[in-house]
Specification:
With 344 residues, this protein is an alpha/beta fold. Helices cover 35% and strands 27% of the residues. The chain has helices spanning 16-25, 39-48, 58-62, 76-88, 103-116, 130-140, 171-174, 178-194, 295-311, 319-338, and strands at residues 4-9, 29-35, 52-54, 69-72, 92-96, 120-123, 147-157, 198-206, 218-225, 230-239, 243-251, 254-258, 265-270, 280-284, 342-343. Helix 4 (76-88) packs parallel to helix 5 (103-116), helix 5 packs antiparallel against helix 10 and helix 6 packs across helix 8 (178-194).
């Protein structure tokens, strides 16, 4: 693949800088044309990243034939419409999760991606984490037997330490709180690990802390999958600092326990005869580091999308994946409001 120029719309998104760092070190990218309504943020990005050149407007990016790929990082209220404009302009589009405020907004994006034939992805890079890839392989091999239950946890620091006035904590701007912004990662990851879709949701989404925000800071879901697995996903802005994460999966033949935040090992126990000589194992990993969003595996996620956009190669996350994840989140909000179960 010859190096290409990439358009970027959004310099103030919480993850914009990480993606600019990624683009800066990718050999597939020779130039970045960046626009954001906040001119100061563009100037700062251009000063920090030599390949970044300021653009006059989103329209100038969309009309520039030298920019086949556009990355869009805007508040959720604006994001889906900006993605639609880019797809209709013939651009391949990479955007940040959850990509829209609701499944309805995301459905329009998915329809446009199918109609235009453009490559489109939402950044759910955990599918590229080497541990996640190996766990999926072990489940596919049948080492856990038939999946029966799971527990997933995504806890992080409280809203008071995260700027409560940020658009992330406005329902109008973001569409939701912790479930929309962070639990979405685990919803997509569980779908990937299980090769299965969520069929029903029970949930509570509530505000437990004192900050004046209009989204939930605490949520808990009970998810049922088409493969029969039933389990919980708990997420909250509840810690003094840092992250507390966990994914545990149980089947009729074994179990897996993984702390993704620790990110260097997981444990597996199996009754499968193929592992009879060592039925309980701890797998340890040494991860390659990179000055990019989500280190080397995040870098590879972006690189593979560029090769898909320009060279037609397969890529991991499609518009339908982002739509299905938002369907689950929307169902969680409905279930919380009604106190009942929502079937998908």
């Amino acid at each position: 693949m010859e190096p290409i120029a990439v358009g970027v719309y959004g310099a103030t998104h919480p993850h914009s800088r990480g993606y600019l760092q990624t683009l800066q070190i990718l050999t597939e990218v020779e130039k970045v044309s960046l626009f954001d309504p906040e001119e100061g943020a563009v100037r700062q990005s251009a000063a920090d990243f030599p390949m970044v050149a300021p653009a006059d407007s989103l329209e100038s990016i969309l009309q520039d034939p030298s920019l086949p790929v556009v990355m869009i990082f805007r508040p959720n209220r604006e994001n889906a419409q900006a993605v639609l404009r880019a797809l209709e302009a013939g651009k391949h589009v990479f955007t940040e999760k959850p990509a829209a405020r609701s499944a309805e907004e995301m459905r329009a994006v998915a329809d446009a991606a199918a109609r235009t034939g453009r490559a489109f992805t939402v950044c759910y890079p955990w599918r590229y984490n080497p541990i996640a890839v190996d766990i999926q392989s072990m489940i596919r091999q049948g080492l856990l037997g038939r999946l029966v239950s799971f527990e997933a946890r995504m806890l992080t620091n409280q809203v008071r330490f995260r700027n409560p006035s940020h658009w992330l904590f406005s329902r109008e701007e973001s569409g939701g709180g912790i479930l929309s912004w962070l639990a979405c990662h685990w919803i997509d990851l569980l779908r990937f690990l299980f090769d299965s879709e969520v069929t029903s949701v029970c949930a509570r989404a509530v505000k437990q802390f004192d900050e004046a925000i209009t989204v939930e800071d605490t949520g808990c879901m009970i998810l049922s999958f088409a493969n029969g697995a039933v389990g919980t996903l708990r997420a909250a802005y509840s810690l003094p600092e840092g992250y507390d994460t966990y994914i545990g999966i149980e089947g009729t033949m074994g179990r897996i326990a993984w702390d993704p935040n620790e990110n260097a090992s997981f444990r597996i126990q199996t009754m499968d005869a193929r592992w009879g000589a060592a039925p309980a194992r701890e797998m340890r990993y040494t991860f390659a580091k990179a000055p990019a969003y989500a280190d080397m595996w995040g870098l590879n996620f972006v690189r593979d999308f560029l090769h898909a956009a320009i060279g037609g190669k397969p890529y991991a996350v499609r518009a339908e994946d982002a739509f299905k994840t938002l369907q689950v989140i929307d169902a969680a909000y409905r279930a919380s409001e009604t106190g009942g179960e929502v079937r998908l």
